[in-house]
Amino acid sequence: MVWVMTGDIVMGGAVALIEPLVNTVGYYFHEKIWQRSGVRRTSALSG
Question: Which InterPro entries does the annotation name (predicted)?
Answer without folding.
Answer: DUF2061_membrane
